[in-house]
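Thread title: Can someone regenerate the structure for this chain?

I was given the following input by a collaborator and told the matching structure tokens would be attached. They weren't. Posting the sequence so someone can regenerate them.
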Amino acid sequence: MHPTPSPNAYKILVVDDDPDIVELLEYNLRKEGYHVASAPDGRKALEIAPPFGPDIILLDVMMPHLDGIDTCRQLRAMTRFKETYIIFLTARAEEFSEVAAFDAGADDFIAKPIKPRALMSRLAAYVRRDHDTQAVSETIEINGLTIDRTGFAVFQEGRKISLPKKEFELLAFLAASPHKVFGREELLQNIWGNDVFVLARTVDVHVRKVREKVGDHHIQTIKGVGYKFNAD
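Best answer:
Regenerated them for you:
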């Protein structure tokens, strides 16, 4: 699913069991021109998401019935939400593992209390990133992989491999410069951008997940430095 070029056409699903937070987010998102739907828990979110078709999902972590981590996993298991941006909202940063979020398929996380202006800036960064990505129209064929950068598709010996957006961007970025070694901070800047705050270990989590899907030999770890794509 590819969001349309206009930010006004973007659909955002807010999932949080705190009605005050939902009201705050809905007000600010609609003021910016986004289409908004909301759900009070993960179970309801899984009902609303398919017919609504969100481009971005703001997902609370601690919720009744079904928490954010399990909700994220179930969303990612649906083909139509493999490329949807999922951003976690958490008030328990001291207890919450970012690795667990990214391992479940999250693109980002935001700590509560939420600052509306900062959140709008973060969302605008994702909109801009979509525009930049959609402007690229090339296919990379390397080491048995065909990477379609416009279709967000990876093929290995004719078999299509589905990757969430950030995993795809990481693989495509490394494959575009085979044998060049990229440090974690450089990968964070190029894949996540300066407008998004994530830790360096996020790269490690995404590399591991890409390896699980396309094979260990495509991305090589350079100890103490970072990663490179192995074209041999």
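The chain has eight helices and twelve strands.
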